[in-house]
Amino acid sequence: MLKDFEKSTPEDKSKLNDQIKALRAHLVAQQQRIREGKLPILVLIEGWSAAGKGSLIKELISEMDPRFYSVVSPAIQPESEARYPFLYPFAKAIPENGQVVFLDSGWMESAVRKKLRLEITQDEYKRRIRMINEFERQLRDGGYLVLKIFLHIGKQEQHQRLESLTSNPDTDWRVTKDDLWQHQEYAQFMKAYGDFMDKTQEAVPWQVLDGQRGKTAVRDALKLLVNKTDKALEKGRYIGEPFEEKFPLLSMPKLKDVDLSPCIPEEDYKKELKKLQARLADLHNKIYRKKIPVILCYEGWDAAGKGGNIRRVAYPLDPRGVDVHPIASPEPHELNRQYLWRFWTRLPRSGHICIFDRTWYGRVMVERLEGFCTEKDWQRAYNEINEFERQLTDWGAVLLKFWIHIDSDTQLARFTDRQNTPEKQWKITDEDWRNREKWPQYEVAVDEMIQKTSTKNAPWYIIESNDKKYARLKTLKIIIKALEKACDESFARQF
User: Fold this and answer.
1) Mind listing the pLDDT tens digit for each residue in 410-450?
2) pLDDT band with cut points at 50, 70 and 90 for residue 80
3) Is the dihedral of CA 157, 173, 46, 35 positive or negative?
4) Which domain holds residue 170?
5) pLDDT tens digits for range 386-413
6) 296 with 331, same domain?
7) CATH of the domain at 80
8) The pLDDT value given to residue 107
């Protein structure tokens, strides 16, 4: 793509200034429409070092209302954020509905530099290309306007700009060792950038602008932004069709076919619980040392025993290395973003454990049945969730998903007990009773969810919980086995 780029020809400066002024006025007028139309816009500015990325962003936002946009530099990460998945800083930065976010460099620069520095393998680079295409498609299909701009300058022009910056003590700090390395290896970067752009055009096309002519680049960038925004506002937010990739799925039983009779005597339970919790505490130390992230996902029927199960898992863990996230209805700022955003922002650092009490699967259960999203949304979510979970396991996370299962009679007995016991009444709500009336519809939705998202890398475990004690022990055993395997595999990779 870059090798075929044609430089722009000189234009009359007065005409250029008039065009820029008119486009800025148009963009300012669009802001209220963007807000009213709840259109989220993500503008990624990539390009060569010293190509003028920062200056271009400054020109784009110069007349905009600062309440409606933000500028993010995700490439500048604290050390702690380097312990998250590759896409974490970019997913965290996506805007709310009606807002614009400008990214000063992003997933392109991160992937290409690490590839050329040999900090990632060729296989990992291919995985990152796949993740980026998935990420961009999910944003587009979820109603985001994504614009990707690359500012292009020639090697001689870059040399002159870097020389000018380094010759002035007030601007010398702006030139890094990476910038000088990029200039020295210009041909290698040229090939790598072109390859990257060719492979990441599936959902959102790249727009290459001539960075050697600053005013022209500003005009062209403004024109792209206002024209694409006009089109998006005119057509309404784009909602993509369900996309399906063939993930390797495991054969899973339907809920009605699960035998819920397993139980364990109280005395045996106490002995086994103590032993398993001691082993889990030991493994927590090991996964911290080996920097293995662990994500435990709990779903299940109301009153199935999720809370008690989670307590028995969390109790032996060092509280400094574990977070429990109870997921309720989304807050307004969460509802106004792509639905996976609130889970991206709650992921654990490597070596830490996070436990989700309810998860992203609300999209294909509660949101599906209560009409909080469209049919296209929840049908598309199965594949999006499989992609999200694959990204997590590719990162190295141990990802375990538990459906805490009881039968309808057991739920009724537990509801009634809660209703009639004063100290337990806080556990039962009118919504619980309403949801119970929809048991058959929920069972259909859960069966479909488990069948379509129990993948080899992220399987579902159905936990029989008519006897809560049995359920707790079974869950602990599954977690321990998975952590032991992860520690063994981590050890094996060292040799």
Assistant:
1) 999 999 999 999 888 888 888 889 989 999 999 999 999 99
2) low
3) negative
4) 2-235
5) 999 999 999 999 999 999 999 999 999 9
6) yes
7) 3.40.50.300
8) 93
